[in-house]
């Protein structure tokens, strides 16, 4: 197991979020992510939705470690359940770091389930799961980061910059093309796209709510096809129901080809 946290390069999706590997083993796998500066670019509200990136990394890797030599893993589902008061824990210490401890859940068959508990200090602020399916692939994908540019020398601090997001006049969240945010398969990192879905759903739920915002409690994501960034790629949220104390919204990630690549459902409470 790794004794000293190992950070990822800033010209990688994980490095953009400041994720570090704390303990590298099949059970448990432990990684961390700083929580400072996480603000929804549409609402201006603090968010811990980007913990989906940490869940995807940690819980996904314990599934990946169970693959055969000729297999690779593809994420099919991701969940993030946020504890009541999680935002208060982060607000009490803006420099706080979330730590995910991930373990395999059950046996592996054609798919596998990994789960993780996310803590800040001694407080559990969230739990998450990743369901992966195994595909046949000979050998390993070589991990090659995009060339380091002058813009990558320092990690961005604003969430919109970290995720390469852009808002249009209707507050649609567009996913700009940036190879740094791609995974080893050349598509938008699954944790990044999950976080984008949470931002869009939360923005839809909080449209017009200034004084009594709804805070995300659960995020459930299904990965339907590869999500490629480009001119048409965007995250779109739609409200199913919103009340005084709770709300439910769906979100879609639409790829560069105009096809829906991911869907999500978000439940939020005041």
UniProtKB/TrEMBL annotation:
Transmembrane segments: none annotated. Keywords: Hydrolase. InterPro entries: HotDog_dom_sf (IPR029069), PAAI_dom (IPR003736), Thioestr_dom (IPR006683). Residues 186-260 form the Thioesterase domain. GO terms for molecular function: acyl-CoA hydrolase activity. NCBIfam families: unchar_dom_1. This is Phenylacetic acid degradation protein. It comes from Mycolicibacterium agri. The lineage of its organism: Bacteria, Bacillati, Actinomycetota, Actinomycetes, Mycobacteriales.
């Amino acid at each position: 197991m790794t004794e000293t946290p190992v950070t990822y390069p800033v010209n990688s999706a994980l490095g953009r979020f400041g994720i570090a590997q704390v303990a590298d083993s099949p059970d448990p796998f432990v990684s961390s992510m700083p929580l400072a500066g996480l603000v929804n670019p549409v609402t201006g509200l603090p968010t811990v939705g980007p913990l989906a990136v940490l869940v995807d990394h940690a819980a996904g890797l314990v599934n990946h470690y169970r693959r055969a030599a000729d297999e690779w893993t593809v994420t099919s589902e991701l969940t993030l359940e946020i504890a009541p008061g999680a935002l208060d824990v982060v607000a009490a210490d803006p420099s706080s770091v979330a730590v995910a401890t991930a373990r395999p859940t059950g046996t592996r068959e054609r798919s596998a389930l990994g789960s993780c508990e996310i803590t800040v200090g001694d407080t559990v602020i969230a739990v998450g799961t990743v369901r992966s399916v195994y595909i046949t692939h000979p050998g390993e994908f070589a991990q090659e980061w995009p060339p380091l540019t002058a813009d990558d020398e320092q990690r961005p601090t604003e969430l919109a910059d970290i995720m390469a997001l852009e808002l249009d006049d209707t507050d649609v969240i567009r996913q700009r093309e940036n190879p740094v945010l791609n995974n080893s398969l050349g598509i938008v990192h699954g944790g990044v796209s999950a976080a984008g879905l949470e931002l869009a759903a939360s923005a839809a739920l909080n449209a017009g709510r200034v004084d009594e915002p709804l805070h995300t409690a659960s995020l459930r994501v299904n990965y339907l096809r590869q999500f490629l960034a480009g001119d048409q790629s965007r995250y779109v949220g739609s409200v199913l129901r919103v009340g005084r104390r709770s709300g439910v919204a769906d979100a879609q990630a639409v790829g560069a080809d105009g096809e829906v690549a991911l869907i999500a459902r978000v439940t939020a409470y005041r």
